[in-house]
Amino acid sequence: MLAIGETARTTRKIRSMSLFEEHPLRRDLNDEVHARPPVPMDVPEVVTYLAFVREEGVDAVARAAEEDAHLRRLARQLGLPEPDTGNDHVFLDAGEFRLKWQRHNEFSSYAFYRQADVPPGDDESALLAVPAEWRKHIPGQLIVATHVEVRTVAEVPPDGVMSRLSPQGPTQVVARVADGAGWVFTDFQIHDGFSRFLLIDVSLTPRQSGRLVQRLLEIETYRIMALLAFPVAKAVGRQVSGAELELADLMDVIGRARDAEDERGVLAGLTRLAADVERSVARTTYRFGAAAAYYRLMQQRIDELRESRVAGFPTILEFMERRLAPAMATCETIARRQEELSGRIARNSQLLRTRVDVELERQNQALLEQMNRRAKLQLRLQETVEGLSIVAITYYGSQLVHYLAKGAAAWIAPVSPEVVTAVAIPTIAGLVFLGLRRMRREVASEAEKIDG
Fold first, then answer.
1. How far lies 3's CA from each of 9, 16, 172, in Å?
2. What's the distance, CA 149 to chain centroid?
3. Phi, psi for residue 351 in degrees, rounded to 5
4. What's the pLDDT score for residue 178?
């Protein structure tokens, strides 16, 4: 009865959930954290890991379609169902080997797992079981290739491995991991095209072994992907040094500039330099940002190893801090120098523009003052001519009065037209003078309102 009641309650919960409108991405987002679990390992096993980046000029969509078709081709060749690549990860179990494929933002990875069939020390690869023609045509350019050999402590005692390490050879990295449940040996060198790891299982569970192998592969991948920025940093560093010297020379020219023409020439040089630096920033910002992200991920994966130091040998963390951290610091420094140089150019350009604008304002002010002086001279000239204007207007006005008086001589007798004209001359002159004076005052008043 209790079981029946529990079933009824569960059924009611399921039915109640159907009443809600579910976000279309809810299940995808929930499944994302479970999408790439580590592959449990039945030790002894060998793992071969390959990572491929997209070739220059190849479209990401075309590259993805090519990868998907290549994976489906392998599934058909092995007699397996065609894989769904929509979630950017695929797991294929072919019996003789297993393949874990993942597509990342910049690269795609292929991890091949295979039971170890030969004694320890023999050169065995998980690729031996993979169809040669298929693996030869994997799309992209190889960026990481790694062999991981996982052996039990009974097969490969750690002391025996350390006794065979040569002190004159490459730096050997040895560490106890997972709180002593395993040992890791590597030199991070490429031998016959592959870097190599040896993982010795002391007391690891199958899932722990899978997680450790996955972390080692991610450390190697993120190490190489982070270092992609280092050649860029070295090339950009030379450009930044040249741009800094050119900026210093332009600043010296500013100090010696004698006129606005010299300053405008320097401004043109600053504008060109700013364009060059911004073009470099646009090309390298993603690479430097990606390198920093890969470096942080690598450090996180190293922390998850929970390493214990073995006397006389560096751990993976120590090796990376000694060998990789300086390169990452160089990339960070170059990126910061680029940003600071861009800011300095912008500030100096703004300062120079201000100087040019001030000089233009000074020239405009001088031009306005010159125009003002010309206006005053013209006004004085007009005042000088004003007297002649009164005489001319009075003359023509008196002539009009004279003609009118002659025409009306019969009505104005005994006053003669000459007398009327003589009397009219001072009257006309006075009226003209008063009219011009009033007009000048009104014009002056309007000018004062405009100036005020």
1. 10, 20, 60
2. 40
3. -65, -45
4. 94
Q: Which residues contact 59 (CB under 8 A, 6 or more apart)?
A: none
| Torsion angles phi and psi, residue 251, rounded to 5 | -65, -35
Element (H, E) at 337: helix 325-407
Q: Compute the half-sphere exposure of residue 368: CA atoms within 13 Å on the CB side of its CA.
A: 6
CA 370 to CA 376: how far, in whole Å? Answer: 10
| C-alpha distances out from residue 329 to 115, 241, 326, Å | 41, 17, 5
User: Whole-angstrom Cα distance, residue 214 to residue 222?
Assistant: 12
3-state secondary structure of 259: coil
Helix, strand, coil content of the chain in percent (nearest 5) = 65, 15, 25
Q: How are beta strands 107-115 and 141-152 bridged, if at all? A: unpaired
127 within 8 A of 135, measured Cβ to Cβ: yes
Tens digits of residue pLDDT in 308-366? 999 889 999 999 999 999 999 999 999 999 988 888 888 877 777 776 677 677 777 87
